[in-house]
Amino acid sequence: VNGGDVLVVGGGIVGLAVAWRAAQEGLAVTVVDPAPGRGASWAAAGMLAPVTEARAAEAPLTALGLASLRRWPSFADELADEIGVEPACLGLRRDGTLQVAVDEDDLRALDDLRVVYDLLGLPAEPCPVRRCRQLEPLLTPRLCGALLVDGDWQVDPRRVVDALRQALARRGATVLTRAVRRLDVDDALDRCLGVTLDDGTMLRSASVVLAAGAWSATVAGLPEHCRPPVRPVKGEILRLRPGRYPAALRHVVRGSVRGTAVYLVPRDDGELVVGATMEEAGWDTDVRAVAVRDLLWAATELVPAVGELVLHEHVAGLRPATPDNAPVLGPTPVVGLHLATGHHRNGVLLAPLTGDAVVAGVLGRPTPDIASGFSLGRFASPSREDGSMSPAGGAQRAPADLVPGRPAPCCLTPKRSRP
Ligand code: GLY
Fold it and tell me: Is the pLDDT of residue 401 over 70?
């Protein structure tokens, strides 16, 4: 069966962004995912936070994040325009982020962060307590300091996924809600032919883009030297809604409360997303009582009124993490096989740039300079003379019952069929 010019394996925000860009280039596109948008994109809070996610040792990733952030406003405008809605419908908010401290230890950690930001030349401004209170009156009376990062924004990933699916439908692209049984590669020619679906259908395509998030290393038939070193890192997150008392914030509020990192992401409709755990738990997507306790404890330490909100949803998702926390983008040694995976904590932020970079590779155009350091080749083992990859590089195999036909993350609330 003809799978079009480009076949994207994985219908999360990254795969859909690649598919949309490809469709905009006039390519015939098929996306395959048993549950589009129900992986990490479903759990994600949607922070666009290259600064408050920055780590001193990850300067190239921060630069990539800043470059993708710059693309977000036009990406959102274009997407909204294409499906005939206002850009605000995608939940892009540019109110900035407050990184706060509630005790002396936090304050010292904030000072350390400032040093890192200065080192990387990132914009963050100390925000005196009085000003913080003006900006966010619901912050705890125990607040003792903060950094204001105007440039860290947020978007609603579920709405973006929905919009991308609509845009793809308008452009005649196909989204198949099926699992991939295996990738089909002609070993003699070192060429990717397409995929075989769980029902045995063989889809043929000149280009296959592997964008299956945490599952990207587990697809059967993937040649060892093309396997991205991706492993799952579990994140549990809460969605709260106003009850009798709203707890409206304008800014994203982040902090580390006695070692527990937490972020509070307010949406226009009154929803507050509180995240997230970081768990090396393999393929486990259980939602744990202790995660609710820890996240709510940390969140109420920063904003006590959060305790009045209604717990609406508790979701676990799996971040696709790599050894250097950065994505794997672009062509592989196998002709016609491209990667768009490994986005770890930054999939939503990096979606626009990933779309541009990966579609450039599919079209045989040069990778944008900013993305050129994020190819699979950076993980090549120096001991291999042919320059190909060392096996798996930390990737974990999924249990057989998760691939294909992985379950959507667990929810306390009944799942809606559409975001
Ligand atoms: N982007 C934040 C997280 O992955 O928890």
Answer: no
- What beta strand segments (E) does 12-129 contain? 29-32, 47-48, 97-101, 125-126
> How confident is residue 262, by pLDDT bands cut at 50, 70 and 90?
very high
CA-proximal residue: ligand 1, atom 3 (nearest): 345
* 240's tokens: 């709260």
Is pLDDT of 9 > 80? yes
At 415, is the pLDDT very low, low, confident or very high (cuts 50, 70, 90)? very low
CA–CA separation, 338 and 357 (whole Å) = 11
Distance in Å, CA 81 to ligand 1 centroid: 28
Please give the model's pTM, rounded to 2 decimal places.
Answer: 0.92
Letter string b/e over residues 359-368, b meaning 16 or more CB atoms within 10 A of that residue's CB = bbbbeeeebe
Report CA(124)–ligand 1 centroid distance (Å): 20
Please give the Cα distance from 177 to 165 (Å, whole number).
12
Query: Does an H or E element contain 157, and which?
Result: helix 157-170
Say how many Å lie between the CA of residue 345 and the centre of ligand 1: 4
Rounded to the nearest angstrom, the distance between the alpha carbon of 44 and the centre of ligand 1 is 7
Whether the pLDDT of residue 406 is over 50: the answer is no
Coil, helix or strand at residue 370: helix
Question: What are phi and psi for residue 391, nearest 5 degrees?
Answer: -60, 130
> For residue 128, is the peptide bond before it cis, meaning its omega torsion is within 30 degrees of 0?
no
For the segment 311-321, what is each residue's pLDDT rounded down to a tens digit?
999 999 999 99
Ligand 1 atom closest to the Cα of residue 47 is 1
Tell me how far apart the alpha carbons of residues 353 and 74 are, in angstroms, rounded to a whole number. 12
Give the residue whose CA is nearest to atom 2 of ligand 1: 345
Position 382 confidence tier, pLDDT thresholds 50, 70, 90: low
Measure the CA–CA gap between 94 and 223, rounded to whole angstroms: 42
